Amino acid sequence: MADLFTPIERAIRLFVYRHFLDTARPPDTDMIARDTGVAPPEVASALRRLADARALVLAPASLDIWMAHPFSAVPTAYPVDIQGRTYWANCAWDAVGVPALVGADAGIRTGCADCGDAIAVDIRCGRAESDAVMHFAVPPRRFWDNIAYT
Amino acid sequence: MTVEQAWRLAQPWYADRLDYEWTPRTPDGMERLLTAAGLTGEFWRVR
């Protein structure tokens, strides 16, 4: 079976994720081109192809990386603190996804989207500590209808 | 879902994002993970 992604697309996807992991920020296209050695037009094509395949989310009409799930490029209501670095998660679900990906203890401090009450989630020694529940307004089969809303 | 369920699901869901060979999960793959986390029923169907 043909590979879904080319080696260039795979390398770029991985670079984006590693950059998020190391800095809590997305790389821009100049950084991607410089680090991967891929020419800018090919970087652009690869980013669009990765976005089409839902491996990344680009900001509208842009090559700026908006999401590399579970990471958000922009501040959200779901900050995840790991060893003094704050990662932004896209949603409550992604907030536990960040320590799952990083493989480290984490503190998540957010608020209930309904009532505003503070919610604390701690991941310690591989266990989640919280009394909270997550309400999903959108079922999984509709997540990508509008990933920004989800 | 409870936070514990989300955490149980998040590990297999996200642990391989740093793999060079990662590809988006198929609907079957997603449903297997959701079911393993105890998330069954109409709402959790991915198709």
Describe the structure.
- The complex is a heterodimer of chains A (150) and B (47).
- Chain A has 150 residues and is α+β, with helices and mostly antiparallel strands.
- Chain A folds into 2 domains: 7-68, Winged helix-like DNA-binding domain superfamily/Winged helix DNA-binding domain (Arc Repressor Mutant, subunit A, Orthogonal Bundle), CATH 1.10.10.10; 74-145, Alkylmercury lyase (Bactericidal permeability-increasing protein, domain 1, Super Roll).
- Chain A is built from 4 helices and 8 strands.
- Chain A has helices at 7-23, 29-36, 40-52, 92-102; strands at residues 57-58, 65-68, 71-72, 79-82, 85-88, 106-111, 118-124, 127-129.
- In chain A, strand 7 (118-124) and strand 8 form a beta hairpin.
- In chain A, helix 1 (7-23) packs across helix 3 (40-52).
- The two termini of chain A are 32 Å apart.
- The model of chain A has no long low-confidence stretch (mean pLDDT 92).
- Chain B has 47 residues and is mainly alpha-helical.
- Chain B has one domain (3-44).
- Chain B contains 2 helices and no strands.
- Chain B has helices at residues 3-14, 27-36.
- The longest helix of chain B is centred in the N-terminal third of the chain and has 12 residues, at 3-14.
- Chain B is flat.
- The mean pLDDT of chain B is 90.
- Chain A binds chain B through residues 4-5, 10-11, 13-14, 17-18, 21, 53-55, 68-70, 92-93, 96-101, 103, 121, 123, 127-128, 130-134, 136, 139-141, and chain B through 1-4, 6-7, 10-11, 13-15, 17-18, 20-24, 30, 34, 43-47.
Describe the structure using short key phrases.
heterodimer, A: 150 residues, alpha+beta, Arc Repressor Mutant, subunit A, Bactericidal permeability-increasing protein, domain 1, 2 domains, five-stranded antiparallel β-sheet, three-stranded antiparallel β-sheet, 4 helices, globular, B: 47 residues, mainly alpha, 0% strand, flat
